[in-house]
Input
Amino acid sequence: MGAITIDSLTKRFDDVVAVDDVSVEIEDGEFLVLVGPSGCGKTTTLRMVAGLETPSEGAIRFDGELVNYTVPQDRDVAMVFQDYALYPHMTVRGNLKFGLEEEPEYTDAERDERVEEVAELLDIGNLLERKPGELSGGQQQRVALGRAIVRDPEVFLMDEPLSNLDAKLRAQMRTELQQLQSQLDVTTVYVTHDQTEAMTMSDRMVVMNDGELQQVGAPLELYHEPRNRFVAEFIGEPSMNFIDGQRGTDGFESEPLDYPFDSTVESSVASLSDGDRLTLGIRPEDIELYDDAADVTEGSHTESMTVTVVEPMGNENVVHLSYDDATARGDDLIAISDGLRTIETGAELDVRIPPEAIHLFDGDTGNALHNRLLETDEQPITQ
Amino acid sequence: MANNGSNFDIRSIVDGMNHRRLGIYVFVTVFIAFFLVPLETGIMTALKSTEAINRSLPFLPPGGDGFTLANLELALEQVQRGVINSLLMALPATIINIVLASMAAYGLTLVDWRGQIGVLLLFVAGVFVPYQAVIVPLARFWTHIFPITEILSPLARLVLVEPYHLELIPLMITHVAYGIPIITVLFRSYYKSMPKSLIEAGKIDGKSVTQIYRDIVLPLSKPMFGVVFIYQFTQIYNEFLFSKVLIGSASAQQATVTLILPQIGASTSGLDYGLRMSAAFLAALPTLVLYIAFAEQFAEGLKTGGA
Output
């Protein structure tokens, strides 16, 4: 019932291309998250699905039916806005009922009943007679959600609904939203700039940048098999480390680091010739830190580095590392170590970059040439 | 800093009183007096007998037997008719004017359609058409081309409607038409600052353009209505030129207060200042009452970035 097809969607505002040739299939009941930095076109895409903007090119289909020029009220969608957009002059009850008034299949008593029911579901039953101005941010958020749910639409559209909440409440609402969505089983398109939200909530996520679609897939797929450097950098916190260099005779060469390839890596970069620009990527949690070079058991791939900053997070430490010879400074590396391990600022560590965990990107286009190997490689990663 | 508790510390005041500060106090006092003396003089003159006016300084209060309320009573008698006519004309004109202007501003600001900038420019141009430029065509229009008073004359048979009331209608419509551009522009700037997501939420909730106006925009424009109501009512109530052109004589039954006022207290033997001042204050009373009644909304409207 709520399947959406977005086909070569483009939106231009005068000279600015906000959304550039985006195509996504959204299944019925799916929780799809559009994620990207601000100005990447994710909100514009959502607004086109809502019918608040008209596409310049391309098509939006709901269950196969073209809706490009259908007005929002005929699309059977509900939207949660970033600023909640609660009507300040109406009570919570009025806000919830407002949209319901246009649904002809309800009698007035049924509408009241439905409002009560949704208010109970969201635990705002005791706030019904208050005005939005008298509610806390979290309560307003619930009312905004309630206003979307009450109409029982085919599609929920959410535009950064949690961005105005404090961190703790946000994490709580994240879980609640997920539960609610699976309970109601309504197709949901959710826009956020927060990759954590995208990773934790989505069935599939769409990464966008500069109006262009970068990659679509399950969260773990995007995490482990990013299609390009942008996705690799955007997904994951702290971000993946990148070292810019070039293809050398027996591997990767850069000023701070020479990194010989093993056979699996070699095969994926075989088409490159010496001197082609390359970027090596490694996730912070994959970097191995040794106090003593003697502990390193497997192969080489080890460099001596100095700890510049340690950020203790409790369960883990985020360790900032720089190369010994400060003159030849490349990018710093960021690594994650166990929270119980004591690492002092200024300490010298032997840092191993395991070859099975590295990603390689084309230095010019940023496209992924090689992604890390996974133990679970037998099955493709899906959810 | 008081030395011992309750003692009023004069020394700190004297110490703080340097030349600069003294200068500021003197400056402020002079200006307050400069602005308030005319008003005070007016009130005093209104309460003095003619003899007292001639003998005492204008701004001094009336002494003992110089005090009289006769001026006010006489002025009320003469000005009453004009005030009622003006209210009959200005209240509906203001209300129709601001409701229409608010609708126009909504259509020009919060609804998207092709060519709205062109229409908006027409409204803006309307703000700059001078009154003097239109008085001749206006008078001809209402008498020869569209004699609305004659067309509506059957209405005069209704209860409470006198034939001369109908004579106020051309003036009323003229004021509505003339007021719409500026009020539209004011409403537009208010609507532009309104969060767009409220309108969009309405759209998604399945509301039509009209319903969004009635259920969302109109209730949220209340503070702005307060502001423009006061502004526009004052404009229309105090306007003279259109009244002069469309009604003409102060002796006409439908004469507005601005036509009657210049006649009061004028005679061959000179001006009766006391009577004149009393009439002026009585004539100003409705606008004053309005300011007090709407003061709260007025302040809120200004605060929320309207006018």
Q: What stands out?
A: Chain B has two domains: 10-66, 70-303. Chain B touches chain A through 16 residues (CB under 8 Å). Strands of chain B lie at 266-267, 270-271.
